[in-house]
Amino acid sequence: MDWLPGYQRKFLPGDVIAGGIVAIMLVPQSMAYALLAGLPPQVGLYASILPVILYGLFGSSRALAVGPVAIVSLMVASSLGDLAEYGSEHFMALALALALISGLMLLIMGVLRLGSLINFLSHPVISGFTSAAALIIAFSQLKHLLGVNIPRSHLISDTLGTAWARMDQVNAYTLFIALVSIAILLYSKGPMARQLLNLGLPQAIVAPVSRTGPLFAVIFGTVMVWQGNLGIAQGVKTVGHIPAGLPGVSFPSLDVAIWWELLPAAALISFVGFLESVSVAKSLARKRRQKIDPDQELIGLGAANIGAAFTGGYPVTGGFSRSVVNFTAGANTPLASLITAGLVALTVIALTPLFYHLPKAVLAAIIMVAVFTLVDIKSFLQAWRYSRGDAASQLATFIAVLVLGVEVGIVFGIILSLLVYLWRTSRPHVAIVGRVPGTEHYRNIDRHKVETQSNILAMRPDENLYFANAVYLEEYILSEVSEHPEIDQVLLICNAISFIDTSALESLESLIIDLREVGVQVHLAEIKGPVMDRLQRSNLLDDLTPGQIFLSTHEAFEALRSFNKSDERSGPEYTI
What we know:
The chain is mainly alpha-helical. The protein has 26 helices and 8 strands. The strands form 2 sheets. The protein has a 6-stranded mixed sheet with strand order 4-3-5-6-7-8. Strands 1-2 form a two-stranded antiparallel sheet.
């Protein structure tokens, strides 16, 4: 809340405008995402009041707009669908428990300052997951777009198969409303913005106004159904009655068995939600030379989810599109979020009767247009050009989510990214170096014209040494020594090594002893201070004798050039 004491009057117009526009956007979105999660539409509205206020008070971002989002809503439906019937009281009770568990996990991680966990999930895996989840979300809305009863499934093949088999049951009025709604949404996001700019309106006004497409779609669909009595006469499915008034206090289940069953899903939802929030919050903060605190973000999101659990909501996080609108509309402080929450609360108190005739096809259209922007083909093509391993991780995660489901797919992606890292670092690049003529610089003999000494093997491993690559390096050195009998000095240049684990240490000790027995002496150069501190607590330096430790590669070359194997040395010369 450090923004509050220094609040300035000039911030107020931007906060008020941004808060109002985000509320206009959030009301239909929150209802749509609640339906996606398998919950009544009012639950999405409830999740957009107290959670938004709590994040505004405890979060560190000044522009992040918290509330229901598509990815988390899909994960809620996926994780709870096998445990209870969608929309039932038990399903709602599980959603409350899931929000509470997620909130507590985020809060505890924030208190323990574990915000750096965001770095443990690679971008290709996240991109593959979100792209596949976006497709699952989009196709899950076919039943609302077509007016056809299609059972929920997390497999696109099942959804498309059922939809195709029931094409003769399509409700033409529902489809028409859906297509027009999609057209309104696409027009507001593209041509409308360009036309307003051509009229001379500033970007600061055009950007938020062009995001009010959901409001126009809601008005269009509601008026169509109301005036034409399409709900009764033509079977167009509508939202129906939404209870008026603020939510009462809800009490999530504290059953240990239920918590234990929901724990894996809560962990994934917390992790993915935190990742999405921090990513967009950092992106927006950089544009204003601000910064966010990942640990405080955990606390803010944790508080928001706990608030959702006790006010009839479900898990929430920061939304990308709403946050961008909040930022562009001029939000200067979290007061914009408080205003948004206040307007949503006003909607719940007084305006819910207006949604009685709102077609579910409009909400489905809002979801589809929103999530298709998450399908990221560009990043896959870039990854394919730059790193086939990353591209393979992204594609494999994408396929796994589509074929195996959301939770299993993302766990598969995380495991795969770790395996790719282990595979990549298990065979590190090792450069054999020589001196650039006339200098004290040493470069790879395969890339530069350098001077070498036939009896010296100088090599630079470009990776930390640990259990996965220790044997590889050992075999690489032994192979070079066996192929070149003239070598009697091996110089290991350590300037790219920041860590040597116990397995690698034992491998080096064994290598030094084995090479000494065949008349080859090992030396080290350019060891970093923290690595040297650890080595001095081991036996490696004693095993290295009469090998030496050199401050620089050049110093090592000059000394080893005239090195006499018969010289006796009492121990390494520590020059660091």
